[in-house]
Every structure is written in structure tokens, then in C-alpha cells.
Task: structure prediction
Amino acid sequence: MHRSTITFVFLALFVASSALAISPGDDLLISGAARTSRWSADLYINNPGATGVTVEVWWLNRDPSITNPAPESYSVGAEETLILDDVILNEFGLNRAEGAFRVTTTGGEVTANLIVFTGAGGDSGTYGSGFEGIPASSATSAGEFTTLAGMVLTADFYTNLFALAGANGVTMDVDLLDPNGDLLDTTQVVLTGYAPWFSSVENLWDVASFENGTALVRVSAGSMVMLGSKVDRTSKDPTTVEQAFGAGGGSIDGTYQFAVYDDLGFASGGNLEIVDAVVDVINGTFVNYDKVDGGGFPECPVIFQWGFDLAPTPVEDFASGVQYAEVYPEGDDFDGGTITYTITFTIDDNVGFSGTLDAVGSEFSGLDTGCNGTFPQQDLYGGKSN
Result:
């Protein structure tokens, strides 16, 4: 930190919800895929950008006893589409496998779509479901829910559900609702990091037969993406069932830029990153000229960096305030000291947040004695940048 005169500027926070449908990203999750005597799949990866990207495709086995193979790497030029025919066999050498895909990129964002076909395979197969690559930042996270409409279990049709957990796994309750919104049955699913999950609705809920049901999926820990497939028992043709996304893009995760305001207006700012509903990183600047001496002059004209000593903390904890101490070591013109910060905020529709920043200084000496004691509270406003 250093002693400085601050020129006040204004920070514009651009808040935008995540795009829905086929969305670009640098970490995409495809919740289900298989190669069996009945099913096969092609993977399409499009680079919409103006420069080339490096893509890694990860195959994730549903059976935890099977070791996942190393990812395959590809270069995809600007505005090009990488087409991986019969991807599980041709790229990973697996004649039979069930699981999911993760697609990561370096150098830009891509979109990904898995086209599933049924039949004898190859050109004679009948194309059915298309499973999109959902950005990990749009996954349904702790404290959120999503729905999948069109659940069915009859003599003619049935529904399969596919999920892929995020980096920190997931705990989710999966409810079956009738068209009136009444609960028919529920079950809980717990998965480890990047674990694929599959269930036919026949095995998921203790309900013999139903039509036009809705799956309500409530995530209490971690994150996940989910898709479904409605299958004709006679033709075996599948139809995709997609999860719903709210105004916040379905996930609290992402990078947020924030500004800190005092009585004069904008004082400082910073950014924070949320991963699986946990505030993983905060980088902020603390300037508080509202703490004045008897003559009305700032007692602590020092710029402090804060957030480095804060351990990863669940987002929900910040609603009641998270307190931690930042220790500032002695420097050339600074004797050192400690500021205990209390950060309080709530997320608004997964695209922004508002709250307060409190600070109490201690152990300062010399020219910086005025940094001891309680600073006036500041206001905190943030918005998601990606």
C-alpha cells in the first residue's frame, strides 16, 4: 500500500445475464453421452472468434471404477467447426462407454453440441437428441434450482435424465411434480467432482406411471448441469429435454467487478470470483477519507489492498457478514498494522450484488496512528462481468 492523493473517477458496472441456448464458453459441460449397440454420437465444436483456439476434450466415465482417459487436444481456426464423428470410438478408442464430456479452451470461447443418433450406427442411424455444451459458469449452483418439463413414464414413452457435477461435486434433490405443481416423489443425488449421472425416471421415482411431469432440481451444495431425453419405446428415437435457466443465467458463478462508495461518491473498487457458489478470490482496494480528525482532515490517507488473507467462503455466509483480518507488513514509509474487515452483501438474480464494507484498524503507529479505530461504513455494489 502507499500514501497517495486520490483522483475520483466513476466506475460503470455492466450487468448482463448469461446467454441461453447454445452458449459460448471456455469450460463447457455436456451432461450425457454414450456408445452402445444402440447409441452413438458426433461432437461439433465451433469457434466463433476471429483467432484460433486450442481445445481439449475430456471424456468422463460414468462408472467411477474406470479411469478416465487423458484429454484429446485440437486446434480450431477462426470461425471453423471441429467435427468429431463417432467421438467416443474414434477419439478415445472406446467401443462401449457411458459418461459425459467436458470441453475446455485456451485462446477464446467455443460452442459445443453433441448429436446423438440411434440405430445400427454410421449413416444408417436416425438422428435424435442434441446435447449442448453448457458453460460451467451457467451451471445450477448451491441455493438455486432448475426445472425440466415433459417428464413421462407410460407404455409408449419414457424419460432419461443426465447430469454432470461441477468441479466440487453436487448435492441435489430431484422432485417429481404433477401438472398442478403437487409433489409426487423426491430423491436425493450426491456426486463427486465432474462425476456423470444417469437415471431413467422409472428407477428415479416410486411412481408407476405419469405424463406431463416436471422435474424440480434443487441444489444444496456444489453445482451441476442437467439434460433429459424423451424416448419412443417403439422407434427408440430420443427427443431432447432441456433444463430451464433463470434471469441470472442459472448460476451464481462468475467474475464480478465491484465499486466501493463513501460519502463523497466512488472511493475504490475491485473484483471477486465465485466458483461453485464459493467466493474463491477477492481483490479489492480500500480508501476511506470519511475518517477525519478534529480539523476535518482524513486521519488515514492510505490506500490498502484487501482480500488476500480471506479464505474461500460460501456466498451465503456474506448475507450475515464475513469478518477477517488483513495484516499489512512494515514498509519503507509505513510501520505496519492490521485492518479487520467485515464484508456483507447479497446476490441479486445472479448478475449483481449490493452490500456494505466495514473496517476497524489496529496496531498502527507513527504517521499512520490515525488508521487505528473504526472507519465509517462504505457501500458496496457489484456486477457480473462474465
Summary: The longest strand covers residues 210-232. Residues 1-21 have pLDDT under 50 and may be disordered.
